[in-house]
TrEMBL record:
The protein's name: DNA polymerase III, delta' subunit domain protein
Superkingdom field: Bacteria
InterPro entries hit by this protein: DNA_Rep/Repair_Clamp_Loader, P-loop_NTPase
Cross-referenced PANTHER family: DNA POLYMERASE III SUBUNIT DELTA (PTHR11669:SF8), REPLICATION FACTOR C / DNA POLYMERASE III GAMMA-TAU SUBUNIT (PTHR11669)
BP terms from Gene Ontology: DNA-templated DNA replication
Species in which this protein is naturally found: Ruminococcus callidus ATCC 27760
Amino acid sequence: MAQFYGNEQIQHTLHQMLLRDRAPHGFLFYGETGLGKKTLAKQFLAELLCTGTEKPCGSCKSCKMLADGVHPDVRFVEHSGKRNGFSVDTVREVCVDLASPPNEGNAKCYVFGDCDAMDTRTQNLLLKAVEEPPAYGYFIFTATSPASLLPTVRSRIVSLAVSPVTEQECRAALAERGFSPEDAAEAVAAFHGNIGQCLNFLENMPIREAVGLTKTAINSIINKNEYALLQTVSVLGKERERTFLFLNLFDRCIRDAIVWKHDPCAAGIGCDAAGSKKLAERLSDSAGQAMHRAVDSTYGAMEANVNLPLALAAFCADCMDA
Ligand SMILES: [Zn+2]
C-alpha cells in the first residue's frame, strides 16, 4: 500500500485516537490536490480495520483486502451526477447500505473523496447518517478547503489539515516509486513537497507542457515582450483544463516574485524559481497585484463562458499594462 509521508502530527493524532478507542466516526482531511489525503484515509482505515497485533500489520485478511481495494466494508464512493459531485441516488444508496452491519469486522467505512463540488442537497441528505451513524459507521471526506462542506456537516466531524511534505521527503517518495534523482529534482523544483503533483508532472505530458508554458510566459513578461506572451498563451487554444492549470501555475510564480521582493529567503510555491527571482528584481508590488487580478478576472471570464482566446488576449494585455 502507498505510504503516506510527512504530516507526523496528523498521523500521531489519528494513531492515538485509535489506540484509545476514541476515534471519531467522521473526518474531513483537507488541503491542496496531490497531498495524499485519500492515502491518509486508507492508512487510517487500515489501522482501524486491522485484526493483527501491530496495526496495520499489512498481512491480515483485512489489511490485504484493503490494499487490493476489495474490502467489503470500505467504499471509496465514486463521483456521480454533476461533474465531480455525488448524485442524490448515490448518497441514498450509501444510506441504505449503512443500515446493514459490516461483513468482516466491526466497522463499515465510506470515503467521499474530492468533495469540493459536493452540493448542498446531497450533503443535507447525508447529514443524518453523519450525525448519528451506527456504532460501526465511519465517514471520511476529503476536499481542498474546509469550506467545501456545510457548517452543519463540519460540526459533526473532525477536520484535519494535510500539508505538503519537505522537498527531501518528496524526493524520497519519488525515488521509492522508481524515478531517477534527476527526474525527482525536476519535479520537486516545480511542485515542491506535493508528492501527488510531482507524480502527475512526471507521468503526464500535459502537466510538463503547462510548466514549460508558464516559464515561457514569465520570461516574456521579464522581457516585456507582449507578442511572445500572446504566442505562448495561444498554445492553450480553447482547452479549459490546461488554461486553468496554466493560470494556477502562473499565479503562483507571481506570488513568489512578490514575496521574494521582500524576503528572498521565503519558501517558494511556484514552478519557476529562476524566473520568479528575476521578476522579483523588477516587479513593483502594484504590478504584481495587477497580474494577480488579471488571473482572477480570467478565471471569472472562463466561468462566464467568455470565448477563451479572447479572455487570454485580455489577460496578456492586463499583464503587460501592469
Ligand atoms: Zn492487519
